[in-house]
Amino acid sequence: MSRNGQRWLFLAACASGAILLYSSPLLPPLRIFAVTPGIVAVLWFVRRQAGPTRARLWWVMLAGLVVGTGWTAWHAGKQQSSALPAELEGEPLQVQGYLCDHPTPGNFGSQRFSLCVTGWSASLTRRYKQLPDRLRLSIYGDKARQVIPRTLSATVVLKRPHGSVNPVGFRYESWLFRHGYGATGSVRSLEAGNGQDCPLICRYHGWRSKLIDSLSRTIGHTHHFPLALALLTGYRGELTDAHWDTLKKTGTIHLVAISGLHLGLVAMAAAWLVRLVLVFVLAQRVSAQTIRVAVFWSVVLVSTGYALLAGFTVPTRRALIMVVVGSWYLTRAARPPLWQGWLIALLAVLLMDPVAPLDRGFWLSFLAVALLLMLFGGRLGRPGTVQGLVMAQAGIFAGLLPALVWAGEGSPLAGLLANLLAIPLISLLAMPVLMVAGILLALLPVTAHWISWLIDLVLAALWLPLEAIAGLPFPGLYPDLPVSALLSGLFISLALIPASRAFWPGVLLAAIWMWQETSTQCISPVPPDDRFRVHVWDVGQGLSVLLEYGPRTLLYDTGPAIPGSYSAVENVLIPNFRKLDVRRIDTLVVSHWDSDHAGGLQQLKGQLPVGRIFSGEPDKVREVLPASKVMPCRNPTLAAAGGVKVRFWRSENPSGGNDSSCVLLVEAPGITLLLTGDIPRETEAEMVASGWLHGSAGMRETGYRLMLAPHHGSKTSSGDALLESFRPDLTLFSAGYRHRYGHPHPDVTERYRRHGLSTENIACTGAMTFVLEDGQVQVLRSRDSAGFWIDPPGPPCEPG
Questions:
Q1: Which residue of 76, 102, 157, 381 is 20 to 30 Å from 43, comparing CA positions?
Q2: What are residue 296's phi and psi, to 5 degrees?
Q3: Confidence grade of residue 30 (pLDDT, cut at 50, 70, 90)
Q4: Is residue 553 part of a domain?
């Protein structure tokens, strides 16, 4: 291999090392990478002395891996060390700083904002060498209605970056690390930071906030103002739940995230205008090289300006790098191979943003560009406009499918049609009109009335088709990973061969498509009769448990749902069900009608077929699911293959709410599971006195006993009578991390210790899975296998 080839191999190895570090559960000690320059120098010397070409290549790759891994590890270690010390959690702290984004509406009438820290109290800086330099804060109550000053001093109560950890699905903790937050929390009091320095970046964020406020006053009355604001400035705080629902159903969320599509359009417009002026006006005075240089720098300046206008967010920065590299490639007189340009963009992103691999958009962006290069890079002739658009969208849809399936997401079929319509409308109509409208509003404010009317007209042409597509009964596409990879490979191969030879491959692709649809809907694999698995999901302050026994599934509660913010069904349950290949819920038990136990019921019914439904408060469940038969929890018994028995209990005279909870006792050879809902101590005592717990005492005495603590471990639960009667080998608290309710209560955890009983907190372990094999129970904790940036079980997050 030539020296030039070895250089490219070294750069590819650097990128691989930077990415592979994020597959490790542990961050290597940083002192190892302090000697990275020396290691690389030695490896490079050995490479020059190595004889055979193959040996040299191995040394080149090893040196690249060391450099890439060392760079990412240093950056990640630096960010980890700036997280809030555990002993400061929950303490009122004094902090000064400035807003580093535009505040957005939060839950329960709050405002959310990011604070870039410029100083802590003197006592803290004396005690700690490193403290967080970026906080994610919420402000509640009357204070949330005030205008948050640009620079401020505040009293805050913080906790370390923390979020739910499940096998698949969105991980808030990864998102916080990805965006550089060292802590989250709430504001107790604040005041304007009079006299505080406002550096350049502070003034930039102030200018952007004023621009957003100005647009809100000028065109805020228009029907499609939230979309206009998102497309012009990248601010999505005005988008409603209805907007997000339509965008999710049509797979078009990327349209309101300022990314490669938007920056690419702006760059193309700038390049076209500059080239037009230089070629047709100054053609005799400038050389071809001067034109290329002018086009390149115009693209860089205009794209950077739009990226700043859009908030310079993570996807915007990544897109800016890709646009700059792409324009550099296209304006060169002698162009390198296409894939070298792709690799340069990848390296540039990893160099400037080493935590980029934690971002889902990073993978989808580079995979999408790679697919486009495969589809169009080697073609001798250009396809027509319509053919090229269809090939590009269908290729990206099919090519990204395996990645989405691997992440537990799948892809809505509506997305293919929606993007075929939306991308031309965005490219040729919406973005050009919005850009011109923005310029006119700045230069001629008196035109605001007519511009508002034009913006509404143009965005209606974009939005109404998307709403119509979202209302159509399109199925989702959620094949198994091998089938999705086969479908993707076949489609891309089909797109690369001439049309005259595409008939039989097309027939094969259609046959596989029909087969996977049929197998998904009609031919579900039958699990063995002796299967027994319990999944306790990490849903924050709430509860959801999935039981797989033999060929059947039972779901106990669906976790919390906060409108417009979080749904355990959408964010946790559905992605993990797809990963587990759970295609039906045979029995759904809604313990009672608290929002942290019964959230997202309609979403669940819309995604999966559900068989029998039981509840401690059936009338309230029927109000949400009027077409479903909901049976009361009145001591039924369900028997299944493999000796599994599921028994139900509810208080004889409940007053409603927590003491109406439906309690389940699941008995199998080798394990007994007790699910208690939110019953208080008085109801626990009633259950123990009824003798219901001792229905199969012999089986329970010889097996593993697992219990979900009543009411998340609140002070009013887990009485002595229950603990002495059931004596679990392990009790789980399903509660939010340092939630304002304070679950589990210290008195309760102390009671378990006094009885000699083991406890664990789902907030500290992540989702837990209990697998019964050969009479033994295997326990799996999601945080044990999570990445190094996720807090492991143990300090600072201790059980109970």
A1: 76
A2: -60, -50
A3: low
A4: yes
Please check whether residues 677 and 588 belong to one and the same domain.
yes
Domain encompassing residue 64 = 3-81
96 lies in some domain: yes
Of 633, 649, 565, nearest in space to 600 by CA:
565
Lowest mean pLDDT across 41-50, 189-198, 422-431: 41-50
Tell me, yes or no, whether 77 and 153 share the same domain: no
| DSSP assignment string, 571-593 | IIIHHHHHHHT---EEEEEE--S
> In terms of Cα–Cα distance, which of 771, 766, 760 is closest to 781?
766
pTM: 0.88
Same domain, 102 and 244: no
**Cβ-contact 564, 241 below 8 angstroms:** yes
> Phi and psi (nearest 5°) for 164?
-65, 145
All residues at 6 or more sequence positions from 698 whose CB lies less than 8 Å from its CB, including other chains = none
- Whether the pLDDT of residue 50 is over 60: the answer is no
Total domain count, the chain: 5
Kindly state whether residues 235 and 365 are assigned to the same domain: yes
User: Could you give the residue ranges of the DSSP H alpha helices within 50-84?
Assistant: 53-81
CATH number, domain containing residue 708? 3.60.15.10
Using CA atoms, how far apart are residues 328 and 318, in angstroms rounded to an integer?
16
What pLDDT sits at residue 697?
Answer: 44
Residues 542 and 516 occupy one common structural domain: no
Q: Does residue 699 have a pLDDT over 60?
A: no
Tell me the three state secondary structure of residue 467: helix
- Which two tokens mark 96? 């000064």
d(CA 636, CA 48): 77
Which domain CATH number covers 122?
Answer: 2.40.50.140
Helix (H, G, I), strand (E, B) or coil at 184: strand
pLDDT over 80 (residue 213): yes
- Of 132, 164, 198, the residue that ends a domain is 198
Q: d(Cα 304, Cα 638) in Å, to the nearest integer? A: 63
How many Cα atoms are found within 13 Å in the side-chain-facing hemisphere of 75?
A: 20
Beta carbons within 10 angstroms of residue 131's beta carbon: 20
Q: What is the 3-state secondary structure (H, E, C) of 719-772?
A: CHHHHHHHCCCEEEECCCCCCCCCCCCHHHHHHHHHCCCCEEEHHHHCCEEEEE
pLDDT, tens digit (0-9, with 9 covering 90-100), for 474-527: 776 677 777 777 777 777 776 666 554 555 555 565 565 555 544 544 444 555
What span, in angstroms and rounded, lies between the C-alpha atoms of 95 and 239?
31
pLDDT in tens, 401-417: 888 877 777 677 788 88
Domain check: are 336 and 439 in the same one?
A: yes
Assess whether 487 and 449 both reside in one domain. Answer: no
